From TrEMBL:
Enzyme class: translocase
UniProt keyword annotation of ATP-binding present: yes
Molecular-function GO terms, alphabetical: ABC-type quaternary ammonium compound transporting activity; ATP binding; ATP hydrolysis activity
Keywords recorded for this protein, A-Z: ATP-binding, Nucleotide-binding, Transport
Stretches the record annotates as Disordered: 328-347
UniProt lineage: Bacteria, Bacillati, Actinomycetota, Actinomycetes, Kitasatosporales
Protein name (database record): ABC-type quaternary amine transporter
Biological source species: Streptomyces violaceusniger
Keyword check for NADP: no
EC identifiers of the protein: 7.6.2.9
Domain ABC transporter: 9-239
PANTHER family documented for this protein: SPERMIDINE/PUTRESCINE IMPORT ATP-BINDING PROTEIN POTA, SPERMIDINE_PUTRESCINE IMPORT ATP-BINDING PROTEIN POTA
Length: 347
């Protein structure tokens, strides 16, 4: 039987206002031990503000924060057992790698011999043992971020807070470092909360993805679940869905371009779907396939096809398989679509 443990982080109706405007609006969030949670959303949706409140850098305007089951709403950062990694690395430039990593342990009064062992272990963990005597400026961006990660992990925090940690790295390194981050989190069994605006990063790393819009959680769940069934148009657009339409008897739906079929002239459509007729507006060659934009009445639909004989201005028939249509709830500012974790209070 699975053992019940206390969640590492619990936010209850956490709100933060800045001179009258609400940055974080009554968020409820539970993060279980060992879980990798990603807070995802567009710029200004309240991700960093939420993380700073968990870290204790910013007091909430109202609401409660529990860490390891204990009330921590007003606890100063140094009394929270939290490790942080920032986009800017925030290393001490005058200290060597090993001294940077040892810093938090010294502050906590860990004995010198144990510091040496633990610094050695975490540098090994992030693959930097051979660079222990270097200064940060003698390291690449990726290496500096590993030092920052080692420093945060060394204190054995209850929760590791990661604020856009990979954003400063170039695209290729960012993808490599994602795997590195995941490996370190899995090997240490640490609970992690990642703030990102990069949906791919969240999909790849998170056990639980929390999507924020204007300070509220609009959807939460395992990445596969959220990606396959975005609850609202906002979430769908954020995750790259492009086709939004009303189907007779079904209401608003979305469907991914790769699921829209482009029918060849005279081709009988597969069963179970709607066929719409329109005009090709644009065709973008992408190597193995083409991205087709078509106008259908006053709508624009997007499809992916392997037929690269399609040309702008030609008529086209598109097949929308109903099995792939994702029903959407409205984006009404006050409507809170059901999430897998959120509980509605009885009226
Ligand atoms: N110290 C502050 N004073 C006033 N307003 C603030 C402050 N910090 C954040 N805000 C506002 O609160 C809102 C949420 O900001 P926050 O930084 O949490 O968003 P974010 O989702 O992390 O955005 P980004 O991805 O751009 O970092 C924004 O409208 C921002 O302007």
């Amino acid at each position: 039987m699975r053992q019940m443990t206390t969640p590492v982080v619990q936010l209850r109706a956490i709100t933060r206002e800045f001179s009258g405007s609400v940055a974080v609006d009554a968020i409820d969030l539970t993060v279980e031990r060992g879980q990798f949670t990603a807070l995802l959303g567009p710029s200004g949706c309240g991700k960093t503000t939420t993380l700073r409140m968990i870290a204790g850098f910013l007091p909430p305007s109202s609401g409660t924060i529990l860490l390891d089951g204990e009330e921590a709403t007003r606890l100063p950062p140094e009394r929270r057992n939290i490790g942080m990694v920032f986009q800017s690395y925030a290393l001490f430039p005058h200290l060597t790698v090993e001294k940077n990593v040892a810093f938090g342990l010294r502050m906590r009064g860990v004995p010198a011999a144990e510091i040496r062992t633990r610094v050695g272990e975490v540098l090994e963990l992030v693959g930097l043992a051979h660079l222990a005597r270097r200064k940060p400026k003698e390291l690449s961006g990726g290496q500096q971020q590993r030092v920052a990660l080692a420093r945060a992990v060394a204190i054995r925090p209850s929760v590791l807070l990661l604020d856009e940690p990979l954003s400063n790295l170039d695209a290729r390194l960012r993808v490599q470092m994602r795997q590195e981050l995941l490996r370190v989190q899995r090997e240490t069994g640490l609970t992690a909360i990642l703030v990102t605006h990069d949906q791919e990063e969240a999909l790849e790393l998170a056990d639980s993805m929390v999507i924020l819009d204007r300070g509220r959680i609009v959807q939460q769940g395992p990445p596969r679940e959220v990606f396959r069934a975005p609850a609202t148009r906002f979430v769908a657009e954020f995750l790259g869905y492009e086709n939004f339409l009303d189907l007779p008897g079904r209401g608003p739906i979305t469907i991914r371009p790769e699921h829209v079929g482009v029918l060849a002239p005279g081709q009988k459509p597969p069963p179970g779907g709607e066929v719409v007729e329109g005009t090709v507006a644009a065709v973008r060659f992408r190597g193995t396939d083409v991205a087709v934009t078509a106008t259908v009445g006053d709508r624009v639909l997007h499809a992916i096809s392997t037929d690269d004989t399609l040309r702008a201005g030609e008529p086209v028939r598109l097949h929308l398989p109903l099995a792939r249509a994702v029903p959407l709830a409205g984006d009404d500012g006050d409507a809170r679509p059901a999430t897998s974790k959120q509980q509605e209070c009885p009226a």
